[in-house]
Amino acid sequence: MKYFAIICFSIFTLSINAQQNDLPYYEVPDCSDEYTVGTVSARMVDGLGFRYYWATEGLKNEDLKYKPSVNARSTAETIDHILSLSRVIVNATNKTPTDFTIKQPELTFEEKRKETLENFKKASENLTNSKSLEELKIKFISKNGESEFPFWNMINGPIADAIWHAGQLVSFRRAAGNPISSNISFLRGKVKK
Questions:
Q1: Averaged pLDDT for residues 83-107
Q2: 82 and 159 Cβ atoms separated by less than 8 Å
């Protein structure tokens, strides 16, 4: 029975590792050969995706509950906020409004992490293929009506906000005793072997 439990745990661990290896942004993708408005914007999102990948890699349940003060968001609540921002980013690059009147499904931490990383990846792909950012607008639908903002607001809004919060996740996990790997080179966008 003991060996059966060990085998089951090993299979489960391998399964989780295989799923994580399928996630984008273990490393930053190779850069484009040319500088365009689309490729530069995409690279900003790629840097965000890489930071978010490593800010959330290896988080434990106790890490998700951590909050630096009574009035602060917990790690889990910050992850929820970044997921929401990733939806705004990908929707804008898909030329689709973000509809806040639709209730989002309950997701596990792993599902949230995967969706967030995939949203960043899709947004980066969309941006890379964009010839002009003028057509990519942030559009919101809420109970108070609709609003629209130019791509400029995407840079100082959702993208910068998500980068800010990814940094908070790193600080939270360090304070909780689970710092990120020291083998990450954010300048190079690679993992030191």
A1: 96
A2: no
The span from the CA of 59 to the CA of 81, in Å, is: 17
State pLDDT tens for residues 162-184: 999 999 999 999 999 999 999 99
Stretch 94-111: mean pLDDT: 96
- Give me the DSSP letters along 161-175: HHHHHHHHHHHHHHH
Residues in the chain: 193
DSSP secondary structure, 5-27, as one string: HHHHHHHHHHHHHHHHHTSTTSS
Of 54, 36, 16, 190, nearest to 128 by C-alpha is: 36
CB 159 within 8 A of CB 44: yes
Model pLDDT, residue 30 = 94
The angle that helices 109-128 and 75-93 make with each other, rounded to 10 degrees, is 30
Q: CB 74: neighbour CB atoms within 10 A?
A: 15
Tokens 């917990």 correspond to 74
